[in-house]
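Ex. 9. Protein: ABC transporter ATP-binding protein.
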Amino acid sequence: MTNPLLKLDGVHTHIGAYHILQGVDLQVAHGEMTVLLGRNGAGKTTTLRTIMGLWNASRGAVTFEGADISALATPDIARRGIAYVPENMGIFADLTVRENMTLAARGARRVEEVDAARLEWIFGLFPALKKFWQHPAGLLSGGQKQMLAVARAIVEPRKLLLIDEPSKGLAPAIIQNMIAAFRELKQTDTTILLVEQNFNFARQLGDQVAVMDNGRVVHAGPMAALAEDEKLQQDLLGLSLGAHQ
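Predicted structure tokens for ABC transporter ATP-binding protein:
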């Protein structure tokens, strides 16, 4: 891959006494969705948190737009145009949907200062957010909370989105809504690195895929190639994507 937007070279991450990432090599191309797959405990979430500076790499380099960001603090990484949607969504339950969105727009002190056209675009992706605009976020359903978490990440244009298991625990109808929203988001030239356990979700959206095992990337390539190769799916993941369609 020539000049990837994001690149990890031999990244190791220790959390206390635990050596979680053990030499991760990963490249994410500009304007594509790369999906991180792997069994529980393989290191996927730790990879996202290390990129975001929430956990520090003990060795190796994380490069974004050609610059090493390994030693930067999380706020400085965010200011470079990277947003992170954690598995626990990271929303403020006691604040309204409107207040959550205003806080996420770093340049706005009042909702009137948020880009109105972009808000309307987000409402088109997630109509429930407009309906519950003045409701406390803690009263939203699980799917609506996930929509809010993604909406907060895109309330301003970002160069890279790191999203951890957006379909986890969601009903099939909500998952289809999320797939449609991500498809539209991909048309905006936004680069996405997605951790996902729903393999049908991943197959429909991913351009590239990287499979992790024991803290390393053990396979990387086009998602279409993995989706068509059931033996490779069994070897890497212990299951068939076809069984989850």
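Check your answer against this statement. The chain has a mean pLDDT of 91.
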